[in-house]
Amino acid sequence: MPTSAPLLVMRDIEKRFQGVHALAKASLEVQPAEIMALVGQNGAGKSTLIKVLTGAYGRDAGSIDFSGRPIAFASPQEAQRGGISTIYQEINLVPFRSVTENIFLGRERRRFGLLDWSRMNAEAADLLRRFDIAIDVRRPLMDYSTAIQQMVAIARAVSFKAQLVIMDEPTSSLDEREVEVLFDVMRRLRAEGVAVVFITHRLDELYQVCDRVTVMRDGRTIATRPMAEVDKLHLIAAMLGRDVEAVRGHATGFTAAAGPAGDEVLSAEGLRIGRRVRDSRLDVRAGQIVGLAGLLGSGRTETARAIFGADPPDAGSIRLMGKAITPREPADAIAMGVGYCSEDRKADGIVPDMSVRENLTLAILPRLVAMGVVDEGRQRAIVEKFMKRLAIKASGPEQKIRELSGGNQQKVLLARWLCADPKLLILDEPTRGIDVGAKAEIQSLIRELADQGLGVLMISSELEEIVEGADRVFVLSDGRTVADLPHAQASARAIMAAMAHEDAAATGEVARG
Amino acid sequence: MADAPSLTRGRAGPDVAAFFRRYAALAALIVLLAFNFAVTPHFVSLQTLNVNLTQVATIVIVSVGMTLVIATGGIDLSVGSLMAIAGALAPLIFLSPFGVAHPALGDLLAFVLPVAVVGLLGAFNGWFITRFQVQPIVGTLVMFIAGRGIGQVLTNGNLQVFHNPTFQFIGLGRVLGVPFQVIVMLVIVGLAAWTVRRTLFGRHILAVGGNERAARLAGVPVARVKRWVYAISGLCAGLAGLVVVSINSSSDANLVGLGMELDAIAAVAVGGTPFTGGQASVIGTLIGALLIQLLRYTLLANGVPDAAALVVKGVIIAGAVWSQQRGRTA
Amino acid sequence: MSLESAVPAGPARPGAIAWAAQQRVLIALAALIAFGALRYDHFLGAYNVLSVLRYNSMFALTSLGMAFVIMTAGIDLSVGTTAACASVVSALLSSYGLVPGLLGGLGVGVAVGAINGFMVTRMRILPFIATLAGMLMASGTGLLLAHNQSVSVSYDTAFIWLGQGDVLGFPVPAWIALAAYVYGSVVLNFTSFGRYVLAVGGGEDASRLMGLPVDRVVFWTYVQSGVFAGLAGVILAAQFGAGQPAEGVGWELFSIAAVVVGGTLLTGGVGSVATTLAGVLLLGLIFNVLNFENGLGWISLSAYWQSVVRGVFLMAVVMAGSGAARRALRTA
């Protein structure tokens, strides 16, 4: 890379939330006219680092120099005026309004005191033409594909004379062709001297467009390398904090399975769901923990929701407890003995204003009812049993669930299904956002339940959890099941290799047409 | 940070400020009562009590249904119009040739049919809202506009005057000196409070309003629950309509229940049920309605014109909701 | 690589569907007028046209203010009682002349609107509750000032011209409403304020991130709604010769219905001034057509059918629109 003065230097950034380090010694250096990839797992601190840069958060320590001057922006708008524009994952534009408006909102062009639409339309069209985009700028933004909307967001950003454009997972909802277009725009920006920081979970993309890559983990910057000098396997290893060759000791609360697996409780084949999932398959037996691994966006959650009936699949077959059934509503799956803990506790799990007791028994409530009246004696007995068994820390069954810590909320949600005595439990990121102690507890509990005959399908981004916990591992990549590994073969290396398998899968797609 | 553990708040002993905010409406009611004992002439009499309770009964009955609707995150603007329909139907039935020929059956049908019809119209509201995913405001606005028209068409806009002691017992009768509609009101409040607290349906209402997505993933039949609360709101409105026409000994579809939707919403708001859904305080609604009623009575009894009482009512509603919001977000 | 290839040109144009919904209103209005003109002798006669315009001008004004508020995803329940209160104040002031009467009515609107706006933007009370409170305050104030009776307008000044006068053969209230809609159209389409109204309603967080003065925009939409309601109150007083403190009940919900029929989404972000006027006229003409139909003597439907027809009409509009809106949101 050129040796000219860097455009951006962030050094030793620290950021604490309620005493917990979100960033510790994080750094980022970007050259002018360079595309820098920023990668890391969820919670590695990428977004926090960006928010510190753009002034959405203040920083507790460290220095930021931009264009050779120290800066401290108070808000993203101020950063934008200072030459740093951010494009968020969810497009922060107004979909009902026209393309022109979305570009000019807040700094309209006027003539005789009134808006000068012809000038604004012309300028907007000119701006987009720079990216080879020829669209009718007077039409509402939502008439266009996500890719175009993304371009409009970029055009708006660039029109603020940005020297640095930050793109936070812009490709997560784009298809391959749209991604190509986006990359074109990024290269064009680089050619015009604009620097880009590109955050993505799809590693293949990095190699297509990025000059260098910065890897973050646990709030620290682990490495910065020219893209050409790291292969994908080493990149994944760096992100996950695993040595490619060595396998570390026991890191989770999981132990080995107690006995052989029983009857099949779930089998899914050829699932196709929307854009994300093209061909996923898996099966789970009683007493077995099946791990579902894959990078973000590989279609893990979509697969789980389809099995549970939350978003029925477009194609494919599902067998539950040996019966061919495709649930259309969660209630159907629940009636078959399936439970599902979603990855987003807040949006899909807890009913915040209800008590621990209410939340815990929400799914089995119909069974605790006589003549429409809830048998509170039985309800209380169940709640007490599970609060004790899962060591749920709350002031009592009547405490509101939103007042509990993340780990305890998760235990309540686990208990919600356990008390229904399910045959299959789907756990989507069961330990995300949970402190270390509670994590090990939950992990050993999952093992214990499986040993008692429960079939578990566990989605996790944490390799340890999959490697040590799962009796069988399915790996998803780009919406396809690309590997099916028994416990003995499910090493970190093998799983990572399967995740990195994307190229082959993509080729397969082309061949299939 | 999103999952910031805040065990302390739930555990810390009685938080005085929170306690006060939670029971602000009740406290205000007690203060107002005390004020009246001290100041208002002839306040301490059975007469005063009966007057106030009689006036508030219909509002409370409607507000109970409204509370359940609001607890699911919805709203029902059609209650006043539904009252007019029920109020128009009942006299039509017992004044009809059939009703006159078979008074006993006619009176029975005059109770049952209007309430049932209006309940069905409420269920229609729920169906419309869930089937077409219409916002509850618009969904029930349809019935607000069409409903009064239906009542007017049924009676051709005419005033129906009647004298039917059996039927009018619901509005004029007394049991042990207590006006019958007050008993109806108390039964409905009790039933609803019990339903919310103890039954499956009640818990499902709160789950739907508290987090619809989570409720669905836990197997709660979201659409069915919503249809039922609008049906119940309709049933309550129907009952209230019968009470009103009984008291008046006449039914005027142009006037019965006019503006009731906003009175009921005000009672629910002052009673502390948040409009975001997920919580329902039926007793709070009763207190809210009583507070609004007593406030008006107090002002009137002390020589303040009715119009000024309206202004005070507006201030009270805004103040109550504002303080409750602060209480919740603090 | 060219970008056009990435644009899914074709039928999936939710914006166009929303646009079509607005066009449908105009088409429906044109159809209803054509139907009336062909079927009834005096439908387009001067008397009928002028009385329809004179009467509906008040609803047109409250609906215009309401449309702006709804475009920000808010709602204003106070428009009816604000008009009533304004009619009282302007009637009381009418003996001082046209201008004091007019300003008095507008002043009431500004005051109520500012209180509403304050409650919504500063106290963070939901618009529905805040304006419910504002509605009660305006109603009570009007009744207080009028001592619960209608207040006769002074016939010594030019005040009644505002309600009963004609200019170029058209009633003054119609001119006022027309001017208001021209103003509204210009503001919505050719000023930053208008664009911010739509932006705030279409995405409040996005608007904040873009640095738009969200709270200020919302506040002024409530003040503006108050002003139009006040103007409607002035016309009310001048047209009927009296300030009417008990009028205005239900105007707010009628206005909401007109705005919804006009294709403005209650969720905010999409709206049009012209089609709001079409919505008002459509709902108003249903009554008119019903009268004419009875006049023909073929059927005899009471005037009360108008509410039923309006309700069913609103339902049909909502059902037709719900598909479009849902498709739009899914794609967005």
From TrEMBL, chain A:
Signal peptide start-end: none
Q: Does the keyword Membrane apply?
A: yes
Q: Which GO terms describe its cellular component?
A: plasma membrane
Q: Name one GO molecular function term.
A: ATP binding
PROSITE patterns, per database record: ABC_TRANSPORTER_1, ABC_TRANSPORTER_2
Residues forming the ABC transporter domain are 8-243, 260-503
List the Gene3D superfamilies hit by this protein, alphabetically: P-loop containing nucleotide triphosphate hydrolases (3.40.50.300)
Lineage: superkingdom: Bacteria
| InterPro entries, alphabetized | AAA+_ATPase, ABC_carbohydrate_import_ATPase, ABC_transporter-like_ATP-bd, ABC_transporter-like_CS, P-loop_NTPase
Query: Where would you find this protein in the cell?
Result: Cell membrane
Q: Which UniProt keywords apply?
A: ATP-binding, Cell membrane, Membrane, Nucleotide-binding, Repeat, Sugar transport, Translocase, Transport
Name of the protein in its database record: Monosaccharide ABC transporter ATP-binding protein (CUT2 family)
Automatic annotation (TrEMBL), chain B:
What cellular component terms from Gene Ontology apply here?
plasma membrane
What keyword terms does UniProt attach to this protein?
Answer: Cell membrane, Membrane, Transmembrane, Transmembrane helix
Say yes or no: keyword Cell membrane present. Answer: yes
Where, by residue number, does the polypeptide cross the bilayer? 23-44, 56-75, 82-102, 108-130, 175-196, 228-247, 267-292
- How does the protein's chain sit in the membrane according to the entry? Multi-pass membrane protein
Query: Where can this protein be found?
Result: Cell membrane
Which protein is depicted? Monosaccharide ABC transporter membrane protein (CUT2 family)
Naturally occurring in which organism (per UniProt): Roseiarcus fermentans
Automatic annotation (TrEMBL), chain C:
- Organism of origin is Roseiarcus fermentans
Q: What is its main location?
A: membrane
Gene Ontology CC annotations of this record: plasma membrane
- Tell me what this protein is called: Monosaccharide ABC transporter membrane protein (CUT2 family)
Q: Name one Pfam family in it.
A: BPD_transp_2
Q: Per its UniProt entry, which superkingdom is the organism in?
A: Bacteria
GO molecular function terms noted in the UniProt entry? transmembrane transporter activity
Keywords of the record, alphabetical order, are:
Cell inner membrane, Cell membrane, Membrane, Transmembrane, Transmembrane helix, Transport
CDD domains attached to this UniProt entry? TM_PBP1_transp_AraH_like (cd06579)
Give its localization.
Cell membrane
Membrane topology listed for this record: Multi-pass membrane protein
Give the transmembrane region(s): 16-38, 59-92, 98-118, 125-146, 174-198, 219-242, 248-266, 273-292, 304-325
